[in-house]
Write a structure and sequence with these properties.
By secondary structure, the protein is an alpha/beta fold. It contains 17 helices and twelve strands.
Length: 380
């Protein structure tokens, strides 16, 4: 699941302002009304008796109000409205990434949400990066969350920081908050902040991956008493079923949904995902100063994987690391946008996870959701 850089749009088509430490993910979901959202948050089955008996029903599907325990993870720069809506319409949970929506794909924020609602009446999602690195950024994130709530969004995935203030806003209208984590200490902080579930990012994820395997991370978090969604390394039906059998309440995929008809990513990027194997995914420090999972293309090989000596020196300094991360964030948000939409493939910083090993074709997003759901239903 490619990493989300943090920025604030100054208008469609203009370069955004970017906050330091801008390297993680974001999510939110919609309910149709307050009453149904309350049912989601409490984990109560929806009104359909058939849905309650579905072999795909999990605490996550009940929270989100969806049929299939599958999330299209929020991605900078690849989460365009058409992709988000297609996954939701097929029964999964499509989630949008605010900077992708506005800066990359050119939508005014509220208008972009309304476009997705026109494309599907089913729940959609949004992610909120909540690290309070500045008052100005915090105010913008509050505004985005308020607008999302006004537009019917009811399921949020928070990343970084203390999620309590988001939980209070969302629970007040019957919504649900899951928190993005890579290890137990962040999961405990999320639980203490009142979140309803966890997105567990493992060591096979795209973007900024965790350090632990799918199995080890679940074992570390299982006793916290919250639903856990697997994020990383799932690109095939077999891996999807394995994650559910391992005890996960759902699976979040990013890389798999880049290689779809609805995603606006350039064809060279999609082809590279289809043609890559797990061994082709390497960790590069060149985007953010922190290792990021990317496809090892000739361009990546030519620029190298390590940050330069000046950047490494600045990142070690207590004062200078703030400026270096800001520089990285500004540069990477532009580089990733350019690379994702560049049909020439000449400057290819293409984020992807090791799930590429299970991706063999570019296909409709809805077909992926339906095929994965069928595989899960066929389990003995």
């Amino acid at each position: 699941m490619p990493a989300a850089s943090r920025a604030r749009e100054r208008g469609p088509g203009r370069e955004p302002e970017v906050e330091p430490h801008a390297h993680q993910r974001l999510i939110l979901t919609s309910g149709e009304d307050r009453a149904s959202a309350v049912r989601y948050r409490r984990g109560v089955e929806s009104t359909s008796t058939a849905g309650a008996q579905s072999p795909l029903a999990t605490p996550f599907t009940r929270h989100a109000g969806v049929e299939v325990p599958l999330i299209c993870g929020p991605m900078y720069p690849c989460s365009n409205p058409e992709l988000v809506a297609a996954v939701s319409e097929a029964g999964g949970l499509g989630v949008f990434q605010p900077i992708s929506l506005t800066y990359v794909h050119g939508h005014e924020y509220r208008a972009g949400l309304r476009l997705m609602r026109r494309l599907t009446s089913k729940p959609i999602g949004m992610n909120a990066l909540i690290e309070q690195s500045s008052k100005r950024y915090h105010a913008r994130m509050q505004e985005w969350i308020d607008i999302a709530l006004e537009e019917g969004v009811r399921f949020f995935i928070t990343s970084l920081g203390n999620p309590r203030w988001v939980v209070e806003k969302v629970h007040a209208v019957g919504g649900v908050v899951y928190h993005d984590v890579t290890e137990r200490k962040w999961a405990q902080k999320g639980r203490d902040g009142g979140v309803d579930g966890l997105i567990a990012v493992n060591n096979r994820a795209g973007g900024h991956a965790g350090a632990k395997s799918l199995e080890a991370l679940h074992a570390e978090l299982a006793d916290l008493g919250l639903p856990i969604v697997c994020a990383g390394g799932v690109g095939s039906e077999q891996r999807f079923v394995e994650a559910l059998d391992a005890g996960y309440a759902g699976v979040q995929m990013g890389t798999r949904f880049i290689a779809t008809d609805e995603c606006r990513a350039a064809e060279p990027y999609k082809r590279a995902i289809v043609e890559a194997d797990a061994d082709d995914i390497v960790l590069s420090e060149r985007l953010s100063g922190i290792p990021v999972s990317v496809i090892n293309t000739p361009y990546i090989q030519s620029v190298g994987l390590k940050a330069g000596p000046l950047a490494r020196w600045m990142l070690r300094g207590r004062r200078t690391k703030h400026w270096m991360r800001t520089i990285y964030a500004l540069k990477s948000i532009w580089q990733l946008k350019r690379a994702s939409l560049d049909e020439s493939g000449s400057k290819d910083f293409w984020q992807a996870g090791k799930s590429v090993a299970g991706i063999d074709a570019v296909e409709p997003a809805g077909e992926i959701v339906r095929r994965f759901a069928a595989a899960a239903r066929a389990r003995p």
